[in-house]
Amino acid sequence: MALSSSFSSNFCDHVCPQALPTIKRVVEDAVKQKSRLGASLLRLHFHDFFINGCGNSILLDKIATINSEKTTIPSKNSIRGFDVIDKI
Prior knowledge:
Elements: H1 3-6, H2 11-15, H3 19-33, H4 37-50, H5 82-87
């Protein structure tokens, strides 16, 4: 089976029906508290997906075997929204 035929835009509806409503609620709550978080989340995902590939590596926490992008000098005090992603 081809990879494209094994995924669909409504995949979560069947596997985890509360995923998208939960994501929406958490993001909306965060933006209500700090309006700039909407833009911060877009920037976080833009840099992870479009700058040097799309590995979600910026979302990984640093551990002994992984030196995360999250804690690198270019990301430090620059990229916001990790707390929202962690809450989701």
